[in-house]
Amino acid sequence: MLILTTPLPAGLGRDVTEVLGPVIGEAVVGMHIGKDITAGIRDIFGGRSASYEKELKGAYEDVLAEIEKRAEALGADAVIGLDFSLTTLGTGSMLAVAACGTAVKLS
């Protein structure tokens, strides 16, 4: 499955022959208190929070897998115009990652 953030598959020698519709993926990741404490220390002293980065990377991978699964169910060859959003929920201890793109068939 081809997944692109660009609106059209330029330079691939293939054209969009059919637009199948939007596909959406989402993942919500809860952070436990240990990660919050570690991230808080990093916030004070500087540096990267490997625990948050690992959770965030996993959430993005889950969202991409969901997008691909939903696009395949529509019979798509590709998803174009993919866009991600990230937000915190509740008291900031949960991260929500979402993505939306357009499922298409290519020539």
From TrEMBL:
InterPro entries: UPF0145_dom_sf, UPF0145_YbjQ-like. Coiled coil: none annotated. It comes from the Bacteria. HAMAP family: UPF0145 (MF_00338). Belongs to the UPF0145 family. This is UPF0145 protein ACKQTC_00310. The lineage of its organism: Bacteria, Bacillati, Bacillota, Clostridia, Eubacteriales.
